[in-house]
Amino acid sequence: MLFVCYPKCTTCQKAKKWLDENKIEYVQRDIKTDNPSYEELKEWLEKSGLDIKRFFNTSGLLYKSMNLKDKLPEMSDEEKLRLLATDGMLVKRPLLVCENTVLVGFKEKEWEWLKDE
């Protein structure tokens, strides 16, 4: 399991603590220093079954400074993926990349099933 996070993010810290407390093994990757590639993001989007909008860190400073709220509706999914691949700070985190799915953001109820794996 790949845990993609920004170590300074409090939500990522909560998710990491939850994984550790539940003895769930993972490999950690810093999204700021090791940004997901276009290919990874495309694969993760398909695995997640989510709308691409869910992959954007809409509360981030970079998202706001780039005025993406207004620009994204005009962009294709291809353009959005390419944009996400330019900077990890645009990507919602944490991301938990499992064998058959990808979890975006940390909501404990959505992660509960991991305890049974």
Strand fraction: 5-15%
Computed over alpha carbons, the radius of gyration is 14 Å
The portion of residues assigned to helices is 25-40%
- The end-to-end span amounts to 11 Å
Q: How is the biggest beta sheet arranged?
A: 4 strands, mixed
- How many β-strands, per DSSP? 4
Shape, principal axes of CA atoms: globular
Helix and strand content put the structural class at alpha+beta
Overview of this structure, please?
By secondary structure, this protein is of the alpha+beta class. Helices cover 38% and strands 12% of the residues. The protein has 6 helices and 4 strands. It has a 4-stranded mixed sheet with strand order 2-1-3-4. The longest helix is centred in the N-terminal third of the chain and has 12 residues, at 10-21. The termini are close together. 26% of the residues are buried.
Sequence-ordered SSE layout with sheet pairings:
Layout: E1 2-5, H1 10-21, E2 27-30, H2 38-48, H3 61-65, H4 68-71, H5 77-84, E3 95-97, E4 102-104, H6 108-111
Name its key features.
four-stranded mixed beta sheet, 117 residues, 12% strand, 4 strands, 6 helices, alpha+beta
Short description:
This protein has 117 residues and is an alpha+beta fold. The chain has helices spanning 10-21, 38-48, 61-65, 68-71, 77-84, 108-111, and strands at 2-5, 27-30, 95-97, 102-104.
